[in-house]
Each structure stands twice: as C-alpha cells, then as structure tokens.
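Continuing from the previous page of notes. For each protein in this section, the sequence appears first, followed by its structure tokens. Read the first protein now.
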Amino acid sequence: MASGSKVWSVFSLGAALGAAAVTRKALEKSWQVATGKKPPENPADPDVEVWEAAMWAAVTGAFVALARMAAQRRAAHYYARSTGHLPAELQKDGQ
C-alpha cells in the first residue's frame, strides 16, 4: 500500500501545482486586461497602492486555492477509477 500512497502523493502534487500555475498565468493576463498594467510583483513596494496589493492577494489566493482543490478532486476521481479505490489518505475510517 505504501507504493500506492507514493503514487497518489506525486499525482496529487502534480495536479495541484499544474492547476496553480495555469490559474496564476490566466489571472495575470486577466489583471492586465482589466487594469491595463501588470499585477504587483512585490506588495511591499511603496509604489504599489495598498488596494492593488490587497486585491491581487485576495484574487490570486482564492482562485489558486479553488483551482488546486478542483485539480486534486479530479485526480482523486481518476485514481479511484484506475485502482478501484480512493487513496488511503482520502478513505473514511470505515472503508
């Protein structure tokens, strides 16, 4: 079962990182279209307005977290279809 756990860990991590990268890239493009400028690279920079830094942090945090969650759920579904069971980390105690 340790082998299955390692496979799931790698699979889940890959899905989450891929989703986060794609989402962040899409958000950067959307930010540029909406505001006409690049998203703030360093929120601590005095040239970045507080509202802009806070908005960028809130938007990226929410959307990246949602994308990672969705990717991990899809990965769990694929894993369960492929192996016939959920990964041990996702199984309820009674299973």
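Done with the first. The second protein uses the same format. Note its length before scrolling.
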Amino acid sequence: MTATPEDKIQALGIWRGPTDIAPLVGGITNRNYLVTDSSRRFVVRLGTDIPVHHISRANELAASRAAHAAGLSPAVVHSEPGVLVLDYIDGKPLIAEDIRDPLMLARIVPLVRFCHQNVAKHFRGAGAIFWVFHVVRDYAALLEEGGSRHETLLPSFLDVAERLERAARPFDIVFGHNDLLAGNFLDDGTRLWLIDWDYAGFNTPLFDLGGLASNNEFSESQETAMLEAYFEAPVSDELRRRYQAMKCASLLRETMWSMVSEIHSDIDFDYSAYTSENLARFERAYQSFRNS
C-alpha cells in the first residue's frame, strides 16, 4: 500500500503528541501542510528536487536558514530528503491588491532591499545563481523536447530573450528571492515575513523588482515609486530601460515556467490558464518596452 503524504508527515518522528495534519491551499510547486502538534503549529513542505525548474532542495534549505538568520523568514525546525519543516507564522498571505497599496509598498520595498543586502551574509555552502536568460534558454529546449503545444513560439522567445539580456546590462549582483508573488509575503499584524526560497540565488536586483511589479500588476506610477524607494534616488532613463527589460524577462520566464509545468507537473492546478494569463502580460510589457 502506497504511503500518503499524511503518512509520511506522521512518520517524521519529531512530534511530541497527537498531531492534526491539514493541507494548505495555494502551492503551485510544492505540497504544503499545516501540522498542529500539541499546541504548536508547523508548516511541512513536501517536494524533491525539480531539475526542469532548476530547484535544488539543498539550496532551498540553505536559503531558508540564511533568511531566518537575517530575520526575514521562519525558523527551519527539521529537514530530510523531500521534507522541510518550518515554524508556522500566524499571518495573512498578501494578495496583489495589498501589494499595490502605497502604505504596504512602502513596507515591502525596504524588506526586498534588506533581503538583497543581508541574506548572503548568512548563506552557507555553494551559492546558486538564478540567471533568467539561461532559464529561458533551458526551458525552450525542454519544451521542444517535450513536444509542447507552444513549440512554435520558442524561436521568438529566444530572440526576445537575447534582446532583453543586451538591454538590461550592466548587471549588479545581489542575493535575490526570485519569486516575489504576493502570497510569499505574510503580514502578522506587526511585521512582514518573506517565505518560500525555492528559487533563491544570486541575481540582479532588477529581476526581483521586475517580478514584484509584474506579478502584482503595478501601474507605471507604482513602478516609479518602487524604483525610487529602492534606489533612494530619482529614476534615470537608463535605469528605467534596464528595469523594463528585466521586467519583460521576468514575465517571459513565468510564462515559460507555466508551459513547462503543463507537461511536467502533477499538481492539481490550471497551468494552461496560468500560461495564457502570463503570456498576455508578457506581450503587453514587451510591446511597451519596444515602444519606449
């Protein structure tokens, strides 16, 4: 008889009393569970390496520990192959509307900058680099090999990626989260937390900023406010152009991530709809970039 996820969690051997295990909704890469052990709560993330998405659980573990040491993320309680147990944060996952609120954005931008400046100070082991243009090229090869229904789009994607990589230079390098979806921010009523370090690694800060804006559908004025707050200076035309290139690259990567997930993921999620949504966002952003 095949063990269920709940069986695997129950057998971890770290619990002190009777446990209650409930799935957490919303994950599109991992399977997440809320475990109540006596009066204490934990989040259990189940997931092995995902080579097609460049996800290494060893890197995720190292980044999670570093982010906790930096004060951004909950503590790692236990880990073993395929399992990560974290302290539970009793907080509200944000939604895009929350992120766009000027008062919330004023809290988030310093948090992102703090991540970029401080998590690497606590990171141990081999450091990963998350280079979106390499990811796009690798995704294109995977989609071609897998006979994706989107195969005809791949030559144009590769051409666009090359143009964007040239336009986004020069590159500063920081330690990035690289997946700034609204739900990866938690508000506990007192402070913000940043969670889920699957894609963490060294990158240009403009990738995180572009992802923050594109994932949460910022207006042009909100993008300007974000950039001015992050860099603590007016936005030059040169910086805005580089930023727009990285925002387009972020959207292209998210689109192709979903295309790859259509043929490689077994999680119950409508990846086809997610592909369509992100492809439309990418096309709008790239058209705006070309016209700027």
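What the second structure shows: The mean pLDDT is 95. The two ends are 60 Å apart (CA to CA). We return to this in next week's lecture.
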